[in-house]
Structures are given as C-alpha cells and as structure tokens.
Amino acid sequence: MKLKDWAEKNSVTYRTGYNHYRRGLINGAYQLPTGTIVVPNVDPETVIAKEHNVVYARVSSSENRGNLDSQAERVAQFCNANGWVVHEIVKECASGLNDRRPKLQKIFTDKKATRIIVGHRDRLTRFGLNYIKTLFSGEIIVINDAEDSKADLMQDFVSLITSFCARLYGIRRSKRRTEQIIEELKSND
Fold it and tell me: Where are the domains of the chain?
C-alpha cells in the first residue's frame, strides 16, 4: 500500500509517516523510482519500529548543576504522564549559544531518537529551533513553550552579549598567559 494509505490506516499524518520512513522506522518500506513510497501489507504492529524518547536537559554553567537533575526529572514526569517511555536522559552543562555540545550532537548523529522532549525551548537552543525541527526527522516537544516576545528577546540579547564577552575575555586571558610564558622563558635564559 502507499505511504498515504498506511498513514491513514495507522491514524497518523502523512508527514509523520514520511518521517518514520526517512528514519527507517517502517520495516520493509521502500521507494519506487517514481518517488512513491510503498509499505508492505502486513500487521501494523510488526511494521512500525519502536519509538525512542530522549529527555534533554541543559544548564549554562556548572554553578547551576543542581538544577540539572530537577529539570530532567520534571521532563521525565511529563513523559510518563503522557504515556511515553523514557529511553534516554541526556544532561549537559553548556551555553545555549554553544554549537559544540557533544551530547546533543550525539543525539542527532545516532539517529535513534524519534522524539526529543525539553522543558523550555532555550534548553535545546537559544536560536534556530525551527531549523532543528525542520532537519530532525522525529518530533521535538517543548513543554513550556510560552512566549513573551519582549522578555524573550531581551534574554536572548543578554545571552548573546554575555557569550561574546566570555569568548573575548578568554582570548585576552590566553594571550596574557602566552606573553607571561614567553617573558618567563626569556628571563630564565
């Protein structure tokens, strides 16, 4: 049967069915040269592969590590309340502006996750959430997605300035240390 028919039969949207196909979650599905996606006529229980729910919790600094466990626990409770089994809890300590977060990158590169659940949108990323939603073939659930545009914009602005200042001061500190080492080496000669 066509993917469209399979999606209707399983009470999901075509887009969800297509996302399942792209992630390899529909066993035996294949695409014809014409572009039509075909799903074999078998029992729906055996066709769709298991879901993999990932809870992602993040704090910006090590000073807030205590909040990390409570954040992950709240999101896990939300999942349980919705009947979703939590397969993985990922906790990370890094800035929301940092694009080098190894644990988050591992979630995307492993391609096991079918659903990522976060407490607030800024826990996943400060900017570009819609890009991530578009590129991630699974589902991203943001529990508290209330937007106060003015306060949110100010918080993003402060975060951006803070991040760039920290990087600038890090570069200056590194330069000063290098100069100190050079001076010490010269004085030891």
Answer: 3-47, 53-144, 147-189
The owner of tokens 């001076």 is: 183
Backbone φ and ψ for 12, nearest 5 degrees, come out as -130, 160
Going across the sheet that includes 115-120, the strands are 86-93, 53-59, 115-120, 139-144
149-151-156 Cα angle (round to 5): 90
Per residue in 7-30, pLDDT tens?
Answer: 888 778 888 888 888 877 787 888
With bands split at pLDDT 50, 70 and 90, how would you rate the model's confidence at 142? Answer: very high
- Do 108 and 131 form a contact (C-beta atoms < 8 A)? no
Residue 43 has a pLDDT of 55
Q: How many other CB atoms are found less than 10 A from the CB of residue 53?
A: 21
Domain 53-144: top CATH class: alpha beta
| DSSP symbol at 50 | P
